[in-house]
Amino acid sequence: MHYRIAIAAIENGADKIRINPGNIGSMERIRAVVDKAKERNIPIRVGVNSGSLEKDIIEKYGKVTAEGIVESALDKVHLIEQFGYENLVVSIKSSDVLMCVKAHELISEQTDYPLHIGITESGTLFSGSIKSSVGLGIMLHEGLGDTIRVSLTGNPVEEVKAAKIILRTLGLRKGGIEVVSCPTCGRTQIDLIGLANQVETLVSGYDLNLKVAVMGCVVNGPGEAREADLGIAGGIGEGLLIKKGEIIKKVKVEELLSALKEELDHWEK
């Protein structure tokens, strides 16, 4: 980032800025950004990616390594500390999941600054969500990280959705409806994949802390949905609406989604 853009962002009300001091240029320019951040007392996120590692550090370790990423980041942190500012957040990222995890484990032993964690350049919605879930899941489970970013090649809205699911799966975030659904099998008589996706879209509009199950048959469906608050199970021509493990209604298959919606509309928080 050009240092004047960083300063302009602060002057126009940014709550936090992200810089890589190594890309800004002279010490005078870095000081100018730090002084402006100091005026407003906003955090500076010091960012270092494996792809931006300095040549001398790569030469020192022989290749891009977790140790090199940490050394580069801490060099930048110490540089800003020289200007008398410690309102910092550290961001070290790599597209290599295990290298990224190791780097965060190492840096957490060397600094108490908040860590902004994520797997950079993780890929498309499918592969990127999996890589982010693995990397962030390990780090968050180890107690690492204060803020997170899921980086996907796609709509940023999908990044937020993935982040929420990761946090909810780890028990770090409450609220929102969790959808569980079974895999298809020989007993499945409905378009389970299409129905599950429709349900996931439907529930995104509700501010409820619930678990909703979507099951592909009426044989095992009610039992498998027992732990959910609400569930639907499809059969041949008709399906079941399930509440707290009890079958409360039989409806036509094409009415399953609307029956579920009616229950959600009248669910008391």
SSE-based structural type? alpha/beta
Q: What general outline do the C-alpha atoms trace?
A: elongated
Beta-strand fraction estimate: 15-25%
Output the strand order for the largest sheet: 6-7-8-9-10
* Number of strand elements: 10
Q: Give, in order, the helices and strands.
A: HEHHEHHEHEHEHEHEHEEEH
Radius of gyration: 24 Å
Task: Name its key features.
single chain; 269 residues; alpha/beta; 5-stranded mixed sheet; 11 helices
Describe it:
The protein has 269 residues and is α/β, with parallel strands linked by helices. Helices cover 44% and strands 19% of the residues. It contains 11 helices and 10 strands. The strands form 3 sheets. It has a 5-stranded mixed beta sheet. It has a 3-stranded parallel beta sheet with strand order 1-2-3. A hairpin with a 3-residue loop joins strand 8 and strand 9. Helix 4 crosses helix 5, helix 6 packs parallel to helix 7 and helix 7 runs parallel beside helix 8. The protein is elongated and about 70 Å long. The two termini are 45 Å apart. The model has no long low-confidence stretch (mean pLDDT 91).
Topology at a glance:
Layout: H1 3-11, E1 17-19, H2 21-24, H3 27-40, E2 44-49, H4 55-61, H5 66-81, E3 88-93, H6 97-108, E4 116-119, H7 125-141, E5 147-150, H8 156-169, E6 178-181, H9 192-203, E7 211-215, H10 221-224, E8 230-234, E9 238-243, E10 246-252, H11 256-265
Parallel strand pairs: 1-2, 2-3, 4-5, 6-7, 7-8
Antiparallel strand pairs: 8-9, 9-10
Helix pairs in contact: 1-3, 4-5, 5-6, 6-7, 7-8
